[in-house]
Amino acid sequence: MSAPTFARTLRGYLDERGWSQGRLARLAAVDNALLGRFLSGKRWPGPITVGLLASALRLDDEATDGLYIAAALLPPGVSPETLIRALALARVARSEAA
Question: Is the domain defined by 5-97 classed in CATH 3.40.50.1820?
């Protein structure tokens, strides 16, 4: 079984930057053990934690929204139309991964 979408997405950002889990934990002010559970797919973050992670990763608005969506959360300020498009894209991505 593959890791949940949020875990894969977050791991991708770490790998892309060459960052360790510990570095992201420090920069985001998130407990390292908790971050490890997010990365393993054992826990899902809340909206505040997603915001902290996105800020620490210096994600642009689109990537930040994607991180919220990967965590099954509605990004701040997202319209219903945008949510519908995002859900459709997520459905396609899941079917391609299966």
Answer: no
